Amino acid sequence: MASLVPKDKRSLRACLICGIVLNHQTFREHGCPNCEPLVRMRGQTDVITDCTSSTFDGVMAVFHPKESWVAKYSHVNSFKPGMYAAYVSGRVPEDIEDMLAQRGFTYHARDGSAED
């Protein structure tokens, strides 16, 4: 499980859609492990910039998302194990939010602006 902890803390970013915290290079090389089928971040610097933020607060380690009440409360219980930000500054652009809705994905803003 040590591989879940990003090694390069200088370039950490949090996904605005799922909240997973990875470094910029990982988003560029592999995309988001949860959101790649939806937004295709891999190799797309502009999409990474639109869908991630370097400003985030509160990090939680999620090892067993389906079994964790914290993961359920944070809306990450259907995602992969990893490090997740509690709050991420910013929101995805409106066109991406619309696209997520069209694909049946419920977007939960991670900036604290949405009421749960």
From TrEMBL:
InterPro entries with a match to the protein in the record:
RPABC4/Spt4, Spt4, Spt4/RpoE2_Znf, Spt4_sf
Question: Which compartments does it reside in?
Answer: Nucleus
Q: What Pfam families has UniProt attached to this entry?
A: Spt4 (PF06093)
Give the SMART domains listed for this entry: Spt4
Where is each Spt4/RpoE2 zinc finger domain found? 12-89
Which keywords annotate this record? Answer: Elongation factor, Nucleus, Protein biosynthesis, Transcription
Q: Where primarily located? A: nucleus
- Residue ranges annotated as coiled coil are none
Q: Which SUPFAM superfamilies does this entry report, sorted A to Z? A: RNA polymerase subunits (SSF63393)
Query: Which residue ranges run through the membrane?
Result: none
Member of which family? Belongs to the SPT4 family.
Q: What does this protein do?
A: The SPT4-SPT5 complex mediates both activation and inhibition of transcription elongation, and plays a role in pre-mRNA processing. This complex seems to be important for the stability of the RNA polymerase II elongation machinery on the chromatin template but not for the inherent ability of this machinery to translocate down the gene.
Q: State the protein's name.
A: Transcription elongation factor SPT4
Which species does the entry assign this protein to? Coemansia asiatica
Q: Which gene encodes it?
A: SPT4
